[in-house]
Amino acid sequence: MRFIQNGIEKTQMIEIAQGCEINRRTLYRYFATKDLLAFEVEMIVMDRIQRYMGSLVSAQELGTGAEHVRAYFARVEMARIQDWLRYTAEFDRYFQNEYPDSGLTRKFIEAIRPENDPLFRFIEEGIADGSILADASARELYHFISQSFFALFQRLILRRNHLMEEYCGAVDFEDMFRKVMLRAIGA
Fold first, then answer.
1. Mean pLDDT of 38-55
2. Sequence-distant (≥ 6) Cβ neighbours of residue 38 within 8 angstroms
3. CB 99 within 8 A of CB 39
């Protein structure tokens, strides 16, 4: 994807049109600006991440909320979502300040509601059944865990080669993340 290769800022609409094998006018008919296109792509990427992560554990699986959270993170294949996380990192960098359109902003915020993510429901379930010991609400825990997950793995994806040279090569960040987060919530 051009936005990942070149960055959103450096990508031209003509390049996107050529990559889609359409003319630029057709692309502009659907997306008036590159920012609007990039924003729509982010909503698709976030939906794919949520669907993938949501498919990892079924709410019908027997067990406590903590066991569901544990399974949720144990089954993640980072290689499968690596490009999606790389795009969200570029999106976050490009849209550090204002979003391009208030209608899209509302649509995006609705799409990423905690209630749409099984992790949130598993945390709620764990607090209710006592398998997750929390000094915070399910919503606060969910946001802390999910934002920590995105931040850490975006950084790892972007800097993996450099981290190997910077004395971090022996650290299994995926396993460490699981252990620290699960231990912190008593799961």
1. 89
2. 3, 8, 91, 94, 95
3. yes
Rounded average pLDDT over 54-69:
85
Whether residue 107 contacts residue 40, with contact meaning beta carbons closer than 8 Å, is answered with: no
Residue keyed to tokens 């569901």: 68
What's the CA gap between 68 and 123, in Å, rounded?
8
| pLDDT for residue 120 | 93
Residue with tokens 């992560």: 53
Residue 149, φ and ψ in degrees, nearest 5: -60, -55
User: Would you mind telling me the total number of residues written for the chain in this entry?
Assistant: 187
Residue that is written with structure tokens 């391009």 in the block = 100
Q: Return the SS3 of 136.
A: coil
Are 125 and 185 in contact by the 8 Å Cβ rule? The answer is no
